[in-house]
Amino acid sequence: MSQAFICRGLYAITDAVLIPDERLTIAVEQALLGGARLLQYRDKSADTGRRRAQAQALNGLCQHYGAPLIINDDVELAAEVGAAGAHIGQDDPSFATARTRLGGNAMIGVSCYDQLELALKAEQAGANYVAFGAFFPSPTKSTEIRASLALLREARAALSIPIVAIGGVTPENAPPLLEAGADALAVISGVFAQPDIQAAAARYAALFA
Fold it and tell me: Is position 2 within any domain?
């Protein structure tokens, strides 16, 4: 893993439905001020020009606050804007392709859902972190996949890279995830759907204090 990046703490993930375009940089800055340590730009729309402009703006903001910007599902966009890295899932370009395109210093994370085997393969391939979930019902990411605390404990014993927990994580239900071995908490609506984004982010950040 690149020494420049630490995958620990609140990992805030943007959502185009929750955050209007004109408020994106403001919302993200509030999350960073509240203590988000990493940011993932997640936008599934087909408007490549808009996505590039937003990613460039967020990359500048993240660099200012010393937080890596990770691009969800789009290795090319991550390369174009010079983001810190990318997050890939089962249906995205292979890890080897992403590493070749982004280089050895990029931070690349892999979604492993509820499967330890995927995480072991990702670590062996050179992933910087793996993500498991959903741990709880999520208002923004509908999935029938459920990861368990037992999986998290098993993964922590088997893996040496950081583990991210995602899916309906709140400041209230997060402590058992951290105790079971999660290094970071990936959060969408728990931060960006809140009336005070900075205060919401701070509640998560406090769990790592």
Answer: no
CATH number of the domain that residue 21 is part of: 3.20.20.70
What confidence tens digit (pLDDT) does each residue in 155-181 have? 999 999 999 999 999 999 999 999 999
For residue 199, the enclosing domain spans 9-208
Task: Tell me the per-residue pLDDT of 96-139, one tens digit each, with 9 for 90 and over.
Answer: 999 999 999 999 999 999 999 999 999 999 999 999 999 999 87
42 part of the active site: yes
Catalytic residue status for 45: no
Domains of the chain: total: 1
Which of 51, 99, 111, 138 is flagged as catalytic? Answer: 111
The structure tokens 């959060």 sit at 187
Q: Is residue 3 part of a domain?
A: no
pTM above 0.90, yes or no: yes
Report residue 131: phi and psi, to 5°: -125, 135
166 CA to centre of own chain: 8
For the chain, first and last CA: distance in Å?
A: 23
203 lies in some domain: yes
Query: Max CA-CA distance within the chain?
Result: 44
Flag whether 4 is in a domain.
no
Contact 69, 58 (CB under 8 A): yes
| Peptide bond before residue 119 is cis, with ω within 30 degrees of 0 | no
The yes-or-no answer on residue 121 being catalytic is no
